[in-house]
Write a structure and sequence with these properties.
Blueprint lengths: L6 E6 H5 L17 E9 L2 E8 L4 E6 L4 E6 L5 E6 L6 E5 L4 E6 L5 E9 L5 E8 L4 E10 L4 E14 L1 E8 L2 E6 L4 E2 L2 E2 L8 E6 L4 E7 L5 E8 L5 E7 L10 E4 L6 E2 L16 E5 L2 E6 L4 E6 L4 E7 L3 E7 L4 E6 L3 E5 L4 E6 L3 E10 L3
Antiparallel strand pairs: 1-30, 2-3, 2-31, 3-4, 5-6, 6-7, 7-8, 9-10, 10-11, 11-12, 13-14, 14-17, 15-16, 17-18, 19-20, 20-21, 21-22, 23-24, 24-25, 25-26, 27-28, 28-29, 29-30
Length: 367
């Protein structure tokens, strides 16, 4: 049974955004395809995974032992994996339809999880970013998915050479993973090597089990954290600057295979509003949205230009999801708010009393 939480507010976009009313966030009215949002969160001072339907009703609350970071959605089954926040100590496998926990997986000895994972396109495998406790050197973990038994079995791993502090990984194509290498060595949450850190964007071919491309950033202290890919295959790179935020002239970069990374340009003082921190990235077509919970802003990027086109204030905003079929973007807030852009002329904010963490995913519901 749904838990009735929302308090709804409907706002006119033109009134709230002024000059930003022309955001190309939608090309028409949203369709009626039902969906659910799944993300790590906090509710009543407890950590868990929230499953919310498209009417903003809480369908399931799945308890977690410690703070989670991201979730991975199985491509064909109602299975979700919640990944613990760095230095993470669990993968929790859930049935998203029933809200039942299926199994839990700990990291290998002297390892930890970095908060992100992805399923393979056929759903047979789960890939994770992991690190060695002593060095924080990057490892891609590979787990076989037994959907019938509801469990994960670690079957392989691939250490990445000279790659410290991995974070998000996602698919560039059906056999190539993109891995964000932040470059930061940590002990717990303490950062140890900011003067020597080296961030990279790495492409890794799962079929050949080899690294196929590595690109370094020109800014040594701009840690690569979050990734998304556009419909044309451009990689959007979200950065977190490890220093005075006013020292950096960009917090998002674009990469095309075989080319140098290009920093996204913006008119001053746009980047300073992000407080040196990009918390999440999502794409729709050739547009990207980025969020900064520290700055309390979201930004729209045209990756073909490439430029930061618009900035909108949303307190403590972080998770973003794009619904291309729906022609809409949905943002979440650590203050318990969902912001749903439903057309070019209006959006809706809903308070649902769930403190959203950094990331969430959308699951399209079928009959």
């Amino acid at each position: 049974m749904a838990i009735d939480l929302p308090r709804r507010k409907f706002l006119q976009l033109a009134l709230s955004l002024g000059a930003y009313a022309a955001w190309p966030v939608s090309a028409g009215s949203p369709s009626s395809t039902p969906f659910q949002l799944v993300g790590c969160a906090r509710r009543d001072a407890h950590y868990g995974v929230a499953v919310v339907d498209d009417q903003w009703q809480l369908r399931h609350w799945l308890p977690l032992p410690e703070r989670g970071h991201d979730v991975a959605i199985h491509p064909s089954l109602p299975i979700v994996v919640a990944i613990s926040r760095r230095p993470g100590q669990y993968l929790h496998l859930f049935d998203v339809q029933t809200g039942r926990q299926l199994s839990s997986q700990q990291p290998e000895p002297e390892r930890f999880f970095y908060g992100h994972a992805v399923f393979s396109a056929d759903g047979r495998f789960l890939y994770t970013t992991e690190g060695f406790e002593a060095t924080c050197n990057a490892v891609i973990g590979c787990y076989e998915v037994d959907a019938q038994q509801g469990r994960l079995t670690r079957i392989n791993e691939w250490p990445l050479q000279n790659a410290i502090g991995p974070h998000e990984l996602t698919w560039w194509n059906d056999h190539t993973l993109m891995i964000a290498i932040g470059g930061i060595k940590t002990r717990g949450r303490e950062k140890l090597n900011l003067d020597q850190m080296q961030p990279y964007l790495v492409y890794f071919d799962i079929e050949t089990q080899t690294e196929t491309e590595r690109v370094a950033l020109p800014q040594q202290r701009a840690s690569i954290r979050h990734l998304a890919v556009t419909s044309a295959g451009r990689t959007v790179v979200g950065l977190q600057y490890q220093g005075d935020p006013d020292e950096t002239d960009s917090l998002v970069a674009i990469h095309e295979r075989g080319q140098p990374i290009l920093k996204i340009q913006a008119e001053n003082p746009h980047w300073s509003r992000f407080s040196g921190y990009i918390g999440s990235v999502a794409t729709m077509g050739e547009y990207a949205m980025v969020s900064s919970p520290r700055g309390g802003v979201i930004g729209l990027i045209d990756t073909t230009t490439p430029r930061l086109e618009r900035v909108l204030a949303v307190n403590d905003v972080c998770p973003i999801v794009a619904l291309p079929d729906e022609k809409r973007w949905i943002f979440g807030s650590g203050l318990g708010t969902v912001v749903d852009f439903v057309s070019v002329s209006s959006y809706e904010t809903v308070d649902i009393l769930i403190e959203w963490d950094n990331h969430w995913k959308a699951v399209t519901m079928t009959e």
